[in-house]
Structure formats: C-alpha cells, structure tokens
Amino acid sequence: MRQLWLHIGSHKTGTSSLQRALLYAQTHNLLGDLTYAHCPKSSSINQLIRVKGAGKALKTTVDFRGLKAAFPDKGSYIASSEMFFWIHNPRQVRKLARVLKRQFDKIHIVAYLRRQDSLAISHRKQAVMRNAAEGFYGLQVSALPTYQQHFDRYFQYDQKLKIWADAFGNDNLHIRKFEKSALFNQDTVDDFFHLLGLATPEWGEHANPPLSRKQLLVGLYQRSKGVERPKVARLIKKIEDPDKLIPSRAQAEVFLSHFKDSNRRLAEILGDKEAPFYFDMDLSRYPEVGNDTVTDAEIEQWITAHSDPQTP
C-alpha cells in the first residue's frame, strides 16, 4: 500500500527544524521504506504553494503539476510545507485530495497547532521577512497585530481542520498540540519521527532563531515605510539586543479571546477533556506592561546608530 505522510504546519511550530531533520534523514538513508519529497535546493515543498494578496484578499495557489512530480517513484513518501496552512478554500483542499489520491492509497495529514497569541507573536519575524505573513498580518509596529476578521481563516483551527477532514477523512488527521508537555521528548522533530515509528537522527541544531525586540521593531517600521526587504535584513543583522518583543498580558488576552469559542469546539472535536479550550490558557508569562510601546523617533535613532556612514 502506497502511503503519504503530509505535514501541513502550522507556522512557528518547529517546522523549519523538522524539514531540515527530514532532509538529513533522507540523505543518510534513515527513513526506512519512506522517501522525503522536497524541491531542488530546498528542504521542503514550500515552492509549490504560492500566496498572493493581502488581508481578506489573500489567496493561495498550488502547483498541482509540480506536486505530482514531487513523488516520481513507487513507494511511500513524506512531504512537508507550512504553506498549506494558509489555504482556507475548501474547494482547493478537495482538489488537493483528488490529486494526491490518484497517487497514494492512504494519506495521513499531520498538523501541529500552537495557541494563537503565541503563534502570532512568533510570526512577527515572518511579517518582516516574508510576503505572505506581511500580507496577512500587516505591518503594525507592535508585538501583536491588531485583530482583523480575516485572521479567523487561519486561527479558527476547528474550522480549518474540518476542511481537511472533509477532504481526506477525519481518521487520517493527526493533530498535535504544540506544547512541550504534549510533544514526545518535548520536541516537534522527536514527536514527528516518533509518530512515524522512526528514530530521530542526530541532524544538527534547531533552525530559524527569533529576532530580538529592536530587530523586530526596526524591521516592521522600515517595511511599513516601504524600505526593501533585503535592505531591512542587512540592517537588522547589525542590531544586538538581548530582549524579546512581548505584549502586555491584557493585549494577549484580548487577542486570544477572539478564538476562545473555536478552541472550545476544537477541544470537543479532539476529545480533550483535560483542557476545555484545548491549549494551556495560562498567560502569566506576559508582563503587566509590554515592551512594544516606542516612538518613531526612538526607532529612527536605532536605525541611525546601526546604519553605514554616508559617503560625502
């Protein structure tokens, strides 16, 4: 029986590290009878999913021809792309299912879910560095983006999973909670390999380190002013700052409140009786006062301090 294990994200759940570990395992023949599909010069199939537009007009397109070509040989495969998590159109997921079912007898969908406030904060780096996240969240210079209605397409997990369950079958969904206590060895890479019955390879260090407070604030500010992304990236590399950008507890609570009902339904669907809102809802890690209140003048000073001297 030909099987596919398709990992669809979400973002900021150890995905980059998992993809690098899978590529390492593939290169060193550590996946048993499985093959890890990836695009050339890449550790994933992210290139096959494109995101265009902004806000509620944000849309995804899937290169179905390229996707079919990603599985050229007989046998079972693993594939991974967090870009699948941007998809909110049921017709697109149904088409994806039809295409893949022509090649595979059984398809497993694996998704890691992170509490919405925590994911949105961690995703600020991508709002600076990636078109899709910038288009989705906007470029508000803050630790958390201000809630917008189109956020529901991404963050209402119960509705998103229903789309995938309707297309692939509820029994074929493997939903993992991105909390240390819920992951095997408290780690996404270990958890995924354990799910597949494989030993985790000694693949290297975890990828994708976060940006600091000043780096994020400068990056968001410059992108909001239209500064090109490569120029922003060069500047923020020069900024050294030990602090993390973090909102106030009240800000986090307000943001999370928009998804409370969705999380309650998610817990019911997944049969999680220990956590009525699926996730650990403790907000004590947030301070009473966040550190994202800053003036444009302050940010301009940071930019000047780290910019190359102008040639006369």
Q: What would you note in describing this structure?
A:
This is Sulfotransferase domain-containing protein. InterPro entries: P-loop_NTPase. It comes from Aliiroseovarius pelagivivens. The chain is of the alpha/beta class and 312 residues long. The chain has a domain at 3-116 and 155-195: Rossmann fold (3-Layer(aba) Sandwich), CATH 3.40.50. Helix content is 40%, strand content 11%. The protein is built from 14 helices and 7 strands. It has helices at 15-27, 64-69, 90-101, 116-122, 124-129, 131-137, 152-155, 157-168, 188-195, 213-224, 229-236, 249-257, 260-270, 296-306, and strands at residues 3-7, 34-36, 49-52, 59-62, 76-80, 106-113, 173-177. The strands form 2 sheets. The protein has a 5-stranded parallel β-sheet, sandwiched between helices. Strands 3-4 form a two-stranded antiparallel ribbon. The longest helix has 13 residues, at 15-27. It is globular, with a radius of gyration of 20 Å. It starts with a strand and ends in a 6-residue tail after the last helix. The model has no long low-confidence stretch (mean pLDDT 95).
Q: Could you give a short description of this structure?
A:
The protein has 312 residues and is α/β, with parallel strands linked by helices. The chain has helices at residues 15-27, 64-69, 90-101, 116-122, 124-129, 131-137, 152-155, 157-168, 188-195, 213-224, 229-236, 249-257, 260-270, 296-306; strands at 3-7, 34-36, 49-52, 59-62, 76-80, 106-113, 173-177.
Secondary structure blueprint with pairings:
Elements: E1 3-7, H1 15-27, E2 34-36, E3 49-52, E4 59-62, H2 64-69, E5 76-80, H3 90-101, E6 106-113, H4 116-122, H5 124-129, H6 131-137, H7 152-155, H8 157-168, E7 173-177, H9 188-195, H10 213-224, H11 229-236, H12 249-257, H13 260-270, H14 296-306
Parallel strand pairs: 1-5, 1-6, 2-5, 6-7
Antiparallel strand pairs: 3-4
